[in-house]
Amino acid sequence: MSELPTNRRARLLEHLPRAQRERLSHIDFKLYFLGELRRADVVDRFETGPAGATRDIALYRDIAPENLEFDGATKTYRPSETFVPLFEHAPQRVLTALSQGFGEGIGDQLQPMIRCEIPAALTLPKMSVLAPITRAINRSKAVRLGYTSVETGHTERVIVPLALVDIGLRWHVRAYCRLRQEFRDFVFTRMDNPEVIEDSQVQREESPDQDVQWSRIIELDLVPHPSHKRPEIIAMDYPMVDGVMKVKVRAANAGYMLRRWSVDCSPNHRLEGLEYALWLRDPLALYGASNAQLAPGYEAPKGRDKSRPIKAM
């Protein structure tokens, strides 16, 4: 069969049922990233049965006949030399699938699809703590819990969770604290006995649009560190345009992210070491961010208060 024009392919895919598009995307993924596809791959992943898997592969071949070749000896499909993926595969999802599996198995049975090594998680929330928080976010409810903080030790709190945040080293939840009457970050591992308050009502001042730090988006201009011996390599490592990578982050997360990325945020790029591959070209972009002090080398503008406490640390 001759190759279909790209726009016709897109129209065909768009009008297919979602479940079928997911199966075709999986076929595309297997060919693209693993270099082989068997009928059993579709059967095992979606439990469609051999006949259903055969139909899905036949449909994929109808849409993109030039994408795969059949090896009769091993009964395996392989990508052709002219293979072009039918779907856009998001890098983060691809890496997650390759390193942790693509939905196969349950619980601790998940296995990487190829040999991978990822950093060990030193701290993860208990599911009995996470579940009430996520239910409250989804249903716009308040949560009663015990919380141990650096500032006050253990206290009883009522919070209105807004969003989950992964800062690389840990997970926390952004929430309105009724005790402090402000939005703060609450670390999951410091919570105990969270309970959704079923009859709770979220007040106007507790709603997400009232969290200024969460709503404010900061644009950061990151450039190769001036003291780096090979700035051209840094430009290769990061998606830079004309030597600058523009990153947008929430003010509530800016300090966490810059620390995670080891960005030198000092005004005179004074931090030394190969870990500081990037420099924040305009440190004033962080002015007003509640956790700017976490950014490596950050200095508050002269005459400004440098002692503002960092919440949830």
UniProtKB/TrEMBL annotation:
Pfam families: BrxR_CTD, WHD_BrxR, WYL. It comes from the Bacteria. Transmembrane segments: none annotated. Residues 20-89 form the DNA-binding transcriptional repressor CapW winged helix-turn-helix domain. Residues 217-283 form the DNA-binding transcriptional repressor CapW C-terminal dimerisation domain. Residues 129-196 form the WYL domain. InterPro entries: CapW-like (IPR016634), CapW_CTD (IPR059020), CBASS_pafABC_assoc_protein (IPR051534), WHD_CapW (IPR059019), WYL_dom (IPR026881). Coiled coil: none annotated. PANTHER family: PROTEIN PAFB, PTHR34580. This is Uncharacterized protein. The lineage of its organism: Bacteria, Pseudomonadati, Pseudomonadota, Betaproteobacteria, Rhodocyclales.
